[in-house]
């Protein structure tokens, strides 16, 4: 895929493939093109490439169209409906599904008891970590075939980040493929099966997560 | 906005020739076009350059008109001197209304000015010891009126009341036009357009967005007040029906149609408002005295123009920002 | 004391009308980010439509229902014709379109039905009902009842149904898209619903206001004030704001000698301006963001 923001070529020839149930991490420094990749997949930005879902080519992608096809995208802002309650937010997570049961809600509340406590609260009053939990909860409600997550660990404390990745693992085990864009490589590589490293809009390194981990491109510094 | 000298010259010739060549009735119509032109000029500054909406310009006209009438009838002030006073009073009301637009989105200004348009006629009736209530204020023949209603002598020539009104109105109109042109090309105008197009950048240009927005309201309202004042002088009376609640919407419509048609749109809008009822009569099934079809056509014109034409001036985001450009 | 109760009752009745129209305004504002300046004129059009049906021999309530349905359809159509094409343009354009619409509908009303006012026979008689020693007019009770019922039905729709959830979600269109919500389609439903609520307001107001093309002008001002009291984004706030405003205006008109009938719009304007300047998030406060 190639993406331009005006004069700036944000993505040059990025090719990605994701298997069913896969867990892929997209890494790279800020501005390398991670967010752009996810947005290109969802149709938020125009690309000159092609996107295939389960073998069929997708024309004219839009975020809501993708959601209806079973692709859940959690953007950097977490996509929280700030004026609605936590409960409504979760219900909206399941918007594209035909029949939703209270069982699904119960399952989410089991996983995140804090959300149950806060269920009537306006989602805008939640902390960053809680909103991230809510976003994960919405993904759970959606039961998508593919989840795109943009830097979910941003701004969260280490303890919360660990819980987050636990939840991601569960989602993946449930059959949902995950494409995770992350700035900090360590945890992402720990959870993912495969990884790509972007640099200046290009794929610099790609392969199994274990192989990528040792690569010199990833500055393994104190922040990991 | 560059102005070809030839266009200016032609316009000047037409202006001078009109009252001589046309009937009294048409001259009166053109006088009213002049009045409307000034009011719409004000709206152009506000809508076209500052990117805001006012639904209350009829009320600002009314403020100007009644100021003039009260000064003339109760205080014997000569009509000419009341014009700047009327402009100032209307401008002040506009500034006060403008405060609501400063911190909030343009909707609040639109709502408040709508309220002004609706409430003002009722206020006129309520405070009838000032305003003459339902009967209005009669100005014909009063000592404050130049010429005392019998015509005016200018430069040795005797002009009828109608011609005098025409000349006065268009002189003021041209003056206002030049004033607005100057204003819009000055620092103030640049600040307005900067605010309209990108509020964040505007903060660095030296004129705060608050000043720009409120200033635009003030100028715009002052122009409307001038128009109202002239209307009072030309027709020699004011009453609650002179400035109805609908007038504001007509003015906005004229401004919008003009704004989307050309940069010099104010004259287009003014001509349209005046002659649309005549044009509407050309439609089949329309009776000669009906106001409905003309209003309907005007509204339709606004809708079509807004939907289909790119504006001659940009609309910008000063009014209110959309959540994100929709992709659906 | 009796007079006080009567004033409150009539205030609630007028307030119900203001609240219905305010609810329509809030729904459209939430759905498309625009304040529909034509809301009042559309309500007038609906009232004229109802009058025409009754004139042709229909009984009131069937005419009421048919008008509601037609208004709903009209609202959806207007959204498709006027708002959808402008969805990527600056908001100013959409608002100007509603201004043009207001003018066009007003002209249409005058063209079709003429400018003279006519009487509209509502379903409630003018006679009185006595409760607890106080005589309350059936008209007031009926209007209050119907408008509050309409608000209640709308509220249940918004809170209890999936459609309502979607309607509430479109206030954040970006997030709604990520969730798979068809924002355009739901906005259309929002417009239809708003048009129907406006029709309710119009048909309830017509018996006492006399039906003419400019009937709803003042009511629209009161509705704006009511919506502002509720913070412009809150459906509940709009209805409550309407009732509060209605009672306040009636009581002020009765007990404060300076505020006679002609100062009512000016008082409402003062309320509107005051709320916008001092408490732009409505009287209930809260941190509703400017529609983000």
TL;DR?
In chain A, 36% of the residues lie in helices and 20% in strands. Chain A has 224 residues and is α/β, with parallel strands linked by helices.
Written account of the structure:
The complex is a heterotrimer of chains A (224), B (328) and C (292). Chain A has 224 residues and is of the alpha/beta class. Chain A has nine helices and ten strands. Chain A is globular and about 45 Å long. The two termini of chain A are 29 Å apart. Chain B is mainly alpha-helical and 328 residues long. Chain B has a single domain, classed as Orthogonal Bundle (ABC transporter involved in vitamin B12 uptake, BtuC), CATH 1.10.3470. Chain C contains eleven helices and two strands. Chain C has one domain: ABC transporter involved in vitamin B12 uptake, BtuC (Orthogonal Bundle). The interface between B and C is large, with 61 and 65 residues.
| Low-pLDDT residue spans of chain B | 324-328
Protein structure class of chain B = mainly alpha
CATH fold label of chain C: ABC transporter involved in vitamin B12 uptake, BtuC
Low-confidence segments of chain C, given as residue ranges, are: 286-292
- Proportion of residues in extended strands of chain B: under 5%
How confident overall, as mean pLDDT of chain C? 88
Count of folded domains of chain B: 1
SSE topology sketch:
The complex is a heterotrimer of chains A (224), B (328) and C (292).
Chain A: E1 3-5, E2 8-11, E3 23-27, H1 34-42, E4 52-53, E5 56-57, H2 63-68, E6 71-74, H3 86-93, H4 102-111, H5 113-117, H6 128-142, E7 146-150, H7 158-173, E8 177-182, H8 185-191, E9 194-199, E10 202-208, H9 209-213
Parallel strand pairs in A: 3-8, 3-9, 6-7, 7-8
Antiparallel strand pairs in A: 1-2, 4-5, 9-10
Helix pairs in contact in A: 3-6, 6-7
Chain B: H1 5-21, H2 24-49, H3 57-75, H4 79-103, H5 106-126, H6 128-131, E1 137-138, E2 152-154, E3 157-159, H7 161-185, H8 187-197, H9 199-202, H10 209-235, E4 237-238, H11 245-261, H12 265-280, H13 292-308
Antiparallel strand pairs in B: 1-4, 2-3
Helix pairs in contact in B: 2-7, 2-10, 2-11, 2-12, 3-4, 3-5, 3-10, 4-5, 4-10, 5-11, 7-10, 8-10, 11-12, 11-13, 12-13
Chain C: H1 2-32, H2 39-55, H3 60-83, H4 91-113, E1 128-131, E2 134-137, H5 138-160, H6 162-169, H7 173-178, H8 183-209, H9 217-229, H10 235-255, H11 264-278
Helix pairs in contact in C: 1-5, 1-8, 1-9, 1-10, 2-3, 2-4, 2-8, 3-8, 5-6, 5-8, 9-10, 9-11
């Amino acid at each position: 895929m190639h993406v331009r923001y005006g004069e700036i070529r944000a993505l040059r020839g990025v090719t990605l493939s994701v298997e069913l149930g896969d867990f892929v991490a997209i890494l790279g420094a800020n501005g390398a093109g991670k967010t752009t990749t996810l947005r290109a997949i969802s149709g938020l930005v125009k690309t000159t490439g092609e996107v295939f879902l389960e073998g069929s080519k997708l024309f004219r992608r839009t975020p809501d169209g993708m959601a209806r096809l079973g692709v859940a995208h959690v953007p950097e802002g977490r996509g929280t409906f700030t004026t609605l309650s936590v409960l409504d937010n979760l219900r909206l997570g399941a918007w594209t599904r035909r029949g939703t049961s209270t069982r699904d809600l119960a399952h989410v509340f089991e996983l995140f008891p804090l959300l149950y406590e806060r269920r009537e609260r306006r989602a805008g009053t939640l902390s960053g970590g809680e909103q991230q939990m809510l976003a994960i909860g919405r993904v759970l409600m959606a039961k998508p075939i593919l989840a795109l997550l943009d830097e979910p660990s941003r701004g969260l404390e280490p303890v919360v980040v660990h819980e987050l990745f636990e939840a991601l693992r569960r989602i993946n085990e449930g059959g949902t493929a995950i494409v995770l864009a992350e700035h900090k490589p360590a945890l992402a590589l720990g959870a993912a099966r495969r990884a790509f490293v972007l640099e200046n809009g290009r794929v610099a390194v790609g392969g199994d997560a274990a192989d990528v981990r040792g690569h010199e491109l990833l500055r393994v510094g104190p922040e990991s | 906005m560059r102005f070809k000298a030839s266009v200016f010259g032609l316009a000047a010739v037409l202006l001078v020739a009109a009252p001589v060549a046309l009937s009294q009735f048409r001259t009166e119509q053109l006088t009213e076009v002049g009045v409307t032109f000034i009011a719409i000029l004000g709206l152009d500054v506000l809508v076209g350059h500052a990117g805001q909406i006012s639904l209350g310009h009829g009320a600002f006209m009314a403020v100007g008109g009644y100021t003039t009438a009260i000064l003339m009838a109760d205080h014997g002030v000569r009509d000419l001197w009341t014009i700047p006073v009327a402009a100032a009073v209307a401008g002040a009301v506009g500034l006060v209304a403008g405060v609501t637009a400063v911190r909030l989105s343009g909707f609040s200004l639109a709502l408040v000015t709508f309220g002004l348009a609706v409430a003002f006629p009722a206020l006129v009736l309520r405070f009838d010891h000032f305003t003459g209530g339902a009967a209005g204020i009669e100005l014909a023949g009063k000592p404050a009126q130049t010429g005392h209603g019998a015509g005016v002598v200018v430069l040795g020539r005797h002009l009828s009341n109608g011609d005098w009104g025409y000349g006065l109105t268009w002189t003021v109109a041209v003056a206002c036009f030049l004033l607005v042109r100057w204003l819009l090309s000055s620092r103030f105008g640049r600040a307005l357009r900067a605010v309209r197009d990108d509020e964040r950048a505007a903060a660095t240009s030296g004129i705060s967005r608050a000043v720009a927005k409120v200033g635009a309201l003030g100028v715009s309202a002052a122009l409307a007040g001038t128009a109202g004042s002239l209307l009072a002088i030309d027709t020699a009376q004011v009453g609650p029906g002179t400035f109805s609640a609908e007038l504001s919407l007509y003015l906005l419509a004229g401004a919008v149609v003009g704004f989307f048609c050309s940069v010099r749109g104010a004259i287009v809008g003014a001509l349209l408002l005046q002659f649309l009822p005549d044009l509407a009569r050309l439609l089949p099934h329309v009776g000669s005295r009906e106001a409905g079809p003309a209003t309907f056509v005007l509204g339709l014109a606004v809708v079509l123009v807004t939907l289909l034409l790119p504006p001659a001036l940009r609309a910008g985001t000063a009014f209110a920002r959309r959540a994100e450009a929709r992709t659906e | 004391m009796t007079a006080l109760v009567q004033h409150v009752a009539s205030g609630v009745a007028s307030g119900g009308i203001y609240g219905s129209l305010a609810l329509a305004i809030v729904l459209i504002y939430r759905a498309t980010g625009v304040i529909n300046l034509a809301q009042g004129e559309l309500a007038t059009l609906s009232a004229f439509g109802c009058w025409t049906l009754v004139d042709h021999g229909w009984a009131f309530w069937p005419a009421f229902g048919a008008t509601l349905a037609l208004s709903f359809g009209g609202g959806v159509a207007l959204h498709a014709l006027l708002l959808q094409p402008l969805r990527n343009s600056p908001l100013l354009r959409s608002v100007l379109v509603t201004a043009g619409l207001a003018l066009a509908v007003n002209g249409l009303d005058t063209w079709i039905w003429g400018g003279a006012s006519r009487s509209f026979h509502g379903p409630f008689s003018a006679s009185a009902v006595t409760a607890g020693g106080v005589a309350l007019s059936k008209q007031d009770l009926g209007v209050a009842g119907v408008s509050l019922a309409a608000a209640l039905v709308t509220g249940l729709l918004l809170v209890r149904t999936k459609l309502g959830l979607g309607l509430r979600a479109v206030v954040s269109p970006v997030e709604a898209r990520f969730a798979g919500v068809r924002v355009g389609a739901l906005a259309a439903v929002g417009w239809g619903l708003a048009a129907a609520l406006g029709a309710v307001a119009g048909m309830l107001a017509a018996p006492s206001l006399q039906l003419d093309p400019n009937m709803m002008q003042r009511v629209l001002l009161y509705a704006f004030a009511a919506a502002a009291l509720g913070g412009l984004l809150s459906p509940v706030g709009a209805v409550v704001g309407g009732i509060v405003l209605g009672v306040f205006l009636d009581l002020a008109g009765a007990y404060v000698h300076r505020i006679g009938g002609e100062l009512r719009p000016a008082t409402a304007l003062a309320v509107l301006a005051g709320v916008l300047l001092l408490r732009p998030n409505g009287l209930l406060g809260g941190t509703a963001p400017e529609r983000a």
